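pasting Cullin neddylation domain-containing protein for the record, 87 residues
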Amino acid sequence: MSQPEESKRTQSLIEGDRRYALDAAIVRIMKGKKELQYEQLKTATIDAVKNHFVPDVTSIKQRIDSLVEQDYLRRHDDDMHLLVYVA
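structre below
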């Protein structure tokens, strides 16, 4: 395997691990809090993974949206910025 191919493969593996780490952190936070505003969840997620890596805001938003699609979280009916943990 050439150096660029191995580098791409390694980067892909790292990105996958980071997605799982973000998902786990978000679910863990929401399981404890039950409801959080998006900004609070974003801040708590950054704080939870800061010892491992610094996530960008876009990645966090994508992971939250993915967890909403997978029915781990839902948006509150009256306040779209409020996220609710689905047990």
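The first strand starts at residue 35 and ends at 37.
The longest helix spans residues 3-33.
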